[in-house]
Design a protein that fits this description.
The chain has six helices and three strands. By secondary structure, it is mainly alpha-helical. The protein folds into two domains: 101 residues, Helix Hairpins, CATH 1.10.287; 128 residues.
């Protein structure tokens, strides 16, 4: 949307100071939240990581249970073969056949013993992982409870300030339209470069707010005339006179109530 070309310097200064008041109030609202948004995000990431780890352990246990089932099947198959070979031994015709069948029986017995050994190993691993899973579940429960409290705390603050913040953002757009793009961009740039985001400050006791360097009387007169945009040579902040600042603070106070 095109900017209003007939806006006076004084109107621009008032709009700039109003922008500063609004931005400062939004900063206050965000500061009320403190580290809560980051804490909530960190907790959510931590819970997600723990849940992924828990899922991996559960998958490993499922694989071990499958391996145990397979080994038990092997044992049953070996028992069937052992019984078969034992019956065959009764009908052998020579020592060679007897020895061959004996070796098959011994092989099946070894297979059974090895499978039983593997089952025992897998069961130990499952027990160890179950302990880790139990500890992980307990940790997740604790983190989720902590997250619940943090979210409730954050939601409470957001609910208290939601309407005000929405109104302030609308006012930001409204007052921004009174300022040309070059000046608006300069304001935003100054805000990012100075302490506390104060890009527009008033004269207080002959000094620039925020830097406290004394401003020469003639310069103060120029600022009070509101005929041009004047910046503080020390901090780069845009300067307005105390009377204009006081008037705009009173006008904007209704939006902050």
């Amino acid at each position: 949307m095109a900017k209003n070309k007939e806006v006076t310097v004084e109107e621009k200064l008032r709009a700039l100071y109003d922008l500063q008041l609004i931005d400062s109030r939004i900063d206050e609202i965000k500061n009320m939240r403190g580290e809560l948004p980051l804490e909530v995000n960190d907790l959510e990431d931590e819970i997600e990581g723990l849940q992924t780890r828990l899922n991996n352990f559960n998958t490993e246990n499922e694989n071990l249970e499958t391996s145990i089932a397979n080994k038990r099947n092997n044992i049953e198959e070996a028992k069937v073969l052992t019984k078969k070979y034992t019956e065959q031994q009764k009908n052998v015709r020579n020592n060679r056949e007897f020895d061959s069948i004996t070796k098959e029986i011994e092989y099946q017995e070894l297979e059974t013993q090895l499978a039983a050994k593997r089952i025992a190993e897998y069961q130990v691993k499952i027990e160890q992982k179950n302990e880790i899973i139990s500890a992980a579940k307990e940790k997740i429960d604790d983190k989720e409870e902590h997250l619940k409290h943090k979210k409730n705390e954050l939601d409470g603050i957001l609910e208290e300030t939601k309407k005000e913040e929405e109104l302030l953002n609308k006012k930001l757009i409204q007052f921004s339209k009174l300022i040309d793009d070059r000046l608006l961009n300069a304001y935003k740039k100054i805000r990012t470069n100075v302490r506390n985001g104060l890009a527009v400050v008033s004269i207080h006791r002959g000094a620039s707010g925020g830097s406290f360097f004394t401003i020469p009387p003639q310069r103060q007169v120029e600022i009070a005339s509101r005929k041009k945009i004047i910046t503080d040579e020390h901090s780069g902040r845009i300067l307005v006179d105390a009377e204009l600042a006081s008037e705009e603070k009173k006008k904007m106070q209704k939006y902050f109530s």
